[in-house]
Every structure is written in C-alpha cells, then in structure tokens.
Amino acid sequence: MTFVGQSLRRVEDERFLTGCGTFVEDVDLPGQLWACVVRSPHAHAVIERIDTSGVTGASVFTYADIADLGLLPCATAVATVEPMLVPPRPALANARVRHVGDPVAFVVADTRTAARDAVERVLVDYRPLPPVVDAAAALAPGAPLLWDEVPGNLSFQFRKGDPGAVSAAMARAAHVVELELVNNRLVIAPTETRAAIGRYESGTFHLFVTAASVHAIRDQLAASVFRLPKEQVLVSAPDVGGGFGIKNALYPEWVMLLWAARHLGRPIKWVEDRAEDFVSTAQGRDNLTTARLGLDAEGRFVALDVSTIANLGAYMSGGGPGSSTNTPANAMGSGYVIPAIAMDVRAAFTNTVPIDAYRGAGKPEANYMLERLIDLAARRHGFDPADLRRRNMISAFPYTKALGSVVDCGRFAATIDDAVIFADRAGFAARRAASERHGKLRGLGLCCFFETARGAPNEGAEIRFTTDAGIELLVGTQSNGQGHETSYPQIVADLLGLPPSTFRYVQADTEKVRAGNGHGGARSMHMGGAAMVRAAREVIAKGAAAAALLLQAKPNEIRFENGCFVAGERTIALLDVARETTLDTYVWNLLDVITFPNGCHIAEVEVDPETGVVKLDRYHGVDDYGTLINPMLTLGQVHGGLAQGIGQAMLENTVYDPDSGQLLSGTLMDYALPASSDLPDLNIMLSGTPTNANPLGVKGAGQAGAMAAPQTIICAILDALAPLGVTHIDMPATAERVWRAIQTACVKGKQP
User: Fold this and answer.
1) What is the rounded distance in angstroms from the CA atom of residue 658 to the CA atom of residue 528?
2) What is the CA radius of gyration of the chain?
C-alpha cells in the first residue's frame, strides 16, 4: 500500500480529543514558583518611580536588576536604503514605556494567585507622553518621537524593482488604476495563549515553552541575551495550541523566566491570560499602501507601482521587518506577467504592540493589493474579471518575475477555468435575481492567490532505530496543529516499506533534535520532507551495504523492496539489518528553492442594503499544492487559513485610540473572531502540478487560505454594492462600514 496521497486520520487527534494532550499549562515542576508581569497602562510615558515596598512574600525585578543582560535581537536581515535603525529592546522597560502592555516589572511568588496579588502592590509613577498609533501619522512632521535613536520614527526605507521602467511603462499605458488600501491590524488570538517554564540546573538554562521555532529562540537567547554557548541553553515545546507565526518570536517573558530561575534557584512558570495576550503578544498586518497598475488597450498588464507605510509597533520584533519587505517582494506581481514592478516601503515605530510574522507575513497583503487593483481595472474599463486575469497569467516556465522570483510550474489559467465551472459562475445571474426578490444585493468576487512557500532555507532530519523495533523521525520543522505526526510517517513509510505505526515523530527539543529552522513560511513538507526523504534514502544505502555482507551477496545484487533487502532468493528485513549494525542517519539538507502554491477562489455574498449586514453565502476554490501527502490534512490547513482570511475581511480589526493610545479592542467582547455561523461550506478542489523543487513534488499549503479569502470577499461585496455607486471599502467590511459606504454613495448620487 502507498501511504503518500492517503487521507489518513491524524494520529495526534486521539490525545487532543480525549484531553490527553500535554501543553505548558498542564506541567508543573517540583519547587516551582509562579510569575506575573507588571505592565504599563500607558501607551507612552516616562517611568519616574517604581515602589515595591508594599510587596511581601514575592520577589520583584525591574530593569535595574537585568541591566547587564543583552537585548532582544531583530533576527531578520533586510537590505534597506540606509542602515536599519533598531532601538534597544531589553526584557523590561528602561525609563520609558512605549505601548500599553509594555513589561515594567517581573513578579515571582509561590503561587499564581500570590504573584497576581503582588503585582497589584507594585506602584509605578508615570509621566504620560503624547502617543502616536498610526504609522502614517508617526512619519508626519511634528509627530511624537518614540526613540531618540530613530529620527522621525522612521526605522528604514526599503526599495526593490525598477522605478524608471515602471514610470516609462505607466506613461505608455492605455489605462492606469490606483487605490489606497488599508491592510488592517490583527490580533492573532491562538487558542493557547503564550506560556513557559524556565529553569536553571548545573549551569544550563532550560525553557519549556509554547513556541514554534525552538532552535531559533535558543540561538537568540544564547548569543544575544545571555552571551553563552548555545549548548548551555535548552529550549523545548510540548503540544502547542496554535501559533500562526507569532510563536516563532523571542519574547521578554522568556528572558525573564530564565534569568529569574537562575537568580532564585527554582523553576518558574508563567501563563498569559487573554487580556495580556491582546497587549503583549505580537500582532499582524497593519500597513497603508498606495498602488497603481498599468494596462495596455487589450488589458495586458505593463507595470505595477507599490508604495507602503508599514507599522512596526513600538519595538522591532524578531521577524517584524520581513513582513513588509522581503516576503511580499517574493510574491509581488502574483502569478501574472507584469514586466515592470517597483516597491517602496517606509517602516515606522508607533505606540502599539510590535508587529511580527502572521500567517503569510506580507504575502496576503501583496495578493490583496494586486487583486483589488485588477478588479478595479476590470470594472472601470469594461473587462471581464476572469478573462482579464486569465489573459495575464504566466503560461511559459520557468518564468522570472520582475523582482527576481523564478516560477517553475503551474496551471494558472486552467485553474481559473476550473474555478468558474466549480463555483457555477454561469448560475450567478439567477442567484442574484433571487436575492433581489428578497430585498438583498448579491455580489460575486473572483480572485486569485499566489504563495511563495519556503520560509527559512535548509533543514535537518534524522532517522534513529530504537531497541524496541521502532524508528524515530527527528526533524527541525515544527507542528503546532498541522498534523506532522501523521504526515512525516506517511512519507517514510513509503520509502522504507514499513507501516506508519512503526515511526515515532520527535520535534521541538534542542536537546534531542540537532538543528532546525522550525515553523513558518509553509515550509515543513517542502524543507523538512525533502530532508527526511534524503535521510531515508541514505538509510537504504547504508542498509544495502550491510545487507550485502549479511546475505553474502555482491552490492549490485541487492535490491530493496517492501521493507526488505533482497538478493536472489535470500532476504533480510531492514529492521533486522538495523539490529546488526547502526543505520541511524542524520542529514542537513541544503535547499533554498521557493515553491509557488496558487489558486483561484470565488465567493458570493448577500448584502442587506438597509442594515449593511453581509452574509457570506457561497465559497469555492481550486488550489494547486503540488503532490498531496495527506489530502485531508491539506484541506484542514486551507480551511483554517480561509477562516482567518474571512475574519480579516469581515470582522477583525485592532483599534487603538489615537489620543491616548489605549487598545479599544482589547478583549474578545470587542474584537470579533469568526464563528462557525459566519462561515459557509468551504468548497475547495485540489488540482496540483507537482514541482521539481523537492523530491516529493509538494508545495506549501499552510498559509494559502489567509491570502486567498480577503480580496475574494471584498471584491464580492463591492460587486454587490456596485449598483449603488460604491467603488471602495476597506477591511473589515463590518455592517456599520458597509452601511456607511451605502449612505455616502447615496448622498453622492443625489448631488447634481
């Protein structure tokens, strides 16, 4: 039986569904203390005094205690116009706080309740300063200054492409469309909030943490913060309840748990509550983009010009600058032939929670921007939206895009044709007429998405044979819900001719797994799978050499089939060979090639013109993820991404008060996450073109839904509102925002 391509049920689901998963909050260590954090209630203020005299039965640490520690680093390299300005980020605020929730003091007590009570007794005198929460406002002359080291709040300017070629092409274009778009800031709100236990034993730190890139966190803690050999810092993660990119980062609390554990000589645990999560865990998106698309008279794209102001938040988070620079640059232009492209990005510090990578990390923004422009061009200049996209799709491979990405394969135009049929676009007119009879406006949005999947290049994998006839698969990628305990064994089961139950999956432990680049960028099957394939092939090669001796055969007489080495009539099982000689194999696989998942999605909405309420009624998509290891897991990943993309398009918005800097959407009562009632059936057809970028032919699927849904839904809403004269709306398209757009258009329509 071949296991790759089978929709095997997730092995890990049994423990999750029966309450047997192990998360950080489930674990307590002997002698463990509890920590709680004193956080700033101000968006911007000077710390004038910290009074801990009223605290009893607890230890309180401030910046003065950790002044000799290193700083939290920015881990992302970006080629900027001038050197990037990265202000210092200690684990506790030094003299000033710069966003609501900024950590000011770290409190440790015997119990969680005692730590929380002690936090209430720490008195901090603040002198408030004017805040600025909007990135464009932060770059304006006279804006409040966050950092003395960063004039005008501008951390960097990033440019890529050929502005001269873009200008020349725009001048020749028959049509030019322009949009100013807000990509709304999002609170990620994973099911499990951040949590960790820090301990220090025999000269070694150990962080047990809900995180998704343990080797990177280990390296940053060792090199930048504690200035120790990395062997003296261990980081491991148990089950993780969702990450979506933000749990890849190094956080101040991780530093403080380890430092305090060493200082007090006992392990220390901290679990974030939901309110803390809203003001301390990295957030996503948040940029303002002005973009222009040029077309010739036949509708061929000739140029794309993109100017973005990106919000970094108050500090430079580890992956923060990549989300507005390197990552969207790889995806810019999507799957279309656009000869000239230019990007200009200015990144600003503001008095808000820092921004970091969130599901797609710049690629959803790039896709949303371009698809909105294409839809505007189609509507304004009389093109059919599907035909306009189809005629501009890449069709010859390999294709080198204007900003340098090389697309190796795809069936872009055919995917549009399949989606049109799958979604029954031909029947839309009848469905629209039926909606109108009920007083509703129906709209259809047809948009494409284009992913660049790789994340960090290169990956490690190891295969170890155990004494109980099992095999351990150790890999440097990391699952926090993707189903890797199921999919990796499927891959190796086929290669080694053994049932998947033979294998035990090991991840997220720097003591056990030698190296790895972790989670992010839809990289696991592309990078980790490729490394595991190479390791398995090396196991077979080692085993064949040993089997030749054991079977008294020549090496060229040995063949491997169904888990056995065969020479004529003689056979020996792989597991028997492993008992005779070591077949354990580790590889570090060098691979920096990007894969290009893509698809076309079609959404239909109904809008109540009296209230602005939008109902997402139908959703269809045709996606290309190359070879599918487990189609059911692939669909699960796509559905999860779609839910988050739908949330961004219709519901979610992080709102800061511009005068005080207070977070107004600071709880789940104020911040709307999508519920099952907000989602229709998500109908996705998987139609892949295998890539040669890796031996499995796979393309990443983890981020695609989040970069497909936003533009598809907004374009559907605009299609519904077009008869009323509404031509633009920003996300999220809440009932109030849609209603106001309708009222504004009606007023304009009545003007002479």
Assistant:
1) 44
2) 27
Phi-psi region of 364 (alpha: psi -120 to 50; beta: other; left: phi over 0): alpha
| Contact call for residues 321 and 347 (beta carbons, < 8 A) | yes
For residues 62 and 56, give the distance between their C-alpha atoms in angstroms, rounded to a whole number: 16
Task: Give the SS3 label for residue 631.
Answer: helix
Counted residue by residue, the chain has a size of 752
Q: How far apart are CA 213 and CA 196, in angstroms?
A: 14
- What tens digit of pLDDT does each residue of 310-319 get? 999 999 999 9
In which residue ranges of the chain is pLDDT below 70? Answer: 749-752
Q: Are 441 and 606 in contact (CB under 8 A)?
A: yes
Are 86 and 316 in contact, with CB atoms under 8 Å apart? yes
Element (H, E) at 226: none
- Unique residue bearing structure tokens 């106001």: 740
Q: pLDDT tens digits, residue range 16-36?
A: 999 999 999 999 999 999 999
**Single-letter residue type at 558:** I
- Confirm if 159 and 215 have CB atoms less than 8 A apart: no
Residue 697 and residue 624 in contact, taking contact as beta carbons nearer than 8 Å: no
**Omega cis (within 30) before 457:** no
pTM above 0.85, yes or no: yes
Q: How far apart are CA 21 and CA 237, in angstroms?
A: 12
Q: How far apart are CA 134 and CA 442, in angstroms?
A: 34
Helices (H), 507-623: 529-550, 574-580
